């Protein structure tokens, strides 16, 4: 990644995963701006890469997303003071729409944000435990503990959700009405 061509190769290979990572955390327009910022920071700190690029980039993206959320929250509070009850409708990322349609978003929403992030890094982003731990800035062992806890919480949330959703069966003749 030290030369422009090497960095460009990393950019081409990792831009979409980084953008998807950010779209789950930010509105689409903010996610694209944040992705650009991720690669700017990556270029400036390209000599600090240790290990695989994607977990390193996800770590940068996570911090930029947090800063973006904080800045957006400050702007929203200021906007609320200036104009009462002004809504900023952000369209959900494609992944969020799929999760919602499957009913998974309802279950995930019952989990704390940290547990959601642990599960999504492994299940959605496809990172290994070691790489996901790097994104969160913890050891692989600590990540495994977090993942175990998150999975138990997810199982409980799924069981609760299944108990609350009414079962719809077919009539005796096998045809839906």
Secondary structure topology:
Layout: H1 4-23, H2 28-44, H3 53-82, H4 94-102, H5 104-108, H6 113-123, H7 129-136, H8 140-164
Helix pairs in contact: 1-2, 1-3, 2-3, 3-7, 6-8, 7-8
Descriptive notes:
There is one protein chain. The model is unreliable at 85-89 (pLDDT under 50). Helix content is 71%, strand content 0%. The N and C termini lie far apart (61 Å). The longest helix is centred in the middle third of the chain and has 30 residues, at 53-82. The radius of gyration is 20 Å and the shape is globular. It has helices at 4-23, 28-44, 53-82, 94-102, 104-108, 113-123, 129-136, 140-164. It has 177 residues and is mostly helical. It is built from eight helices and no strands.
**Shape, per Cα inertia axes:** globular
Low-confidence stretches: 85-89
Largest sheet: none
Topology, number of strands: 0
Which value, in Å, is the CA radius of gyration?
A: 20 Å
Task: Please indicate the percent range of residues in DSSP E strands (runs of 2 or more).
Answer: under 5%
Structural class: mainly alpha
Average pLDDT number:
80
* Number of H/I helices: 8
SSE series:
HHHHHHHH
From the N-terminal CA to the C-terminal CA, the straight-line distance is: 61 Å
State the helicity in percent bands. Answer: over 70%
């Amino acid at each position: 990644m030290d030369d422009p061509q090497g960095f460009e190769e990393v950019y081409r290979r990792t831009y979409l995963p980084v953008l998807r990572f950010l779209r789950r955390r930010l509105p689409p327009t903010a996610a694209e701006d944040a992705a650009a910022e991720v690669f700017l920071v990556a270029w400036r700190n390209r000599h600090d890469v240790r290990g695989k690029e994607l977990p390193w980039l996800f770590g940068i993206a996570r911090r930029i997303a947090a800063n973006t959320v904080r800045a957006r929250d400050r702007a929203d509070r200021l906007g609320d003071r200036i104009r009462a009850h002004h809504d900023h409708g952000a369209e959900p990322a494609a992944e969020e729409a799929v999760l919602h349609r499957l009913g998974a978003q309802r279950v995930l929403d019952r989990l704390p944000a940290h547990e959601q992030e642990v599960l999504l890094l492994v299940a959605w982003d496809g990172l290994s435990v070691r790489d996901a731990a790097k994104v969160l800035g913890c050891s692989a062992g600590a990540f495994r503990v977090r993942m175990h806890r998150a999975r138990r919480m997810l199982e409980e949330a799924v069981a609760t959700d299944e108990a609350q959703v009414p079962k719809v069966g077919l009539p005796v003749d096998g045809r839906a009405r």
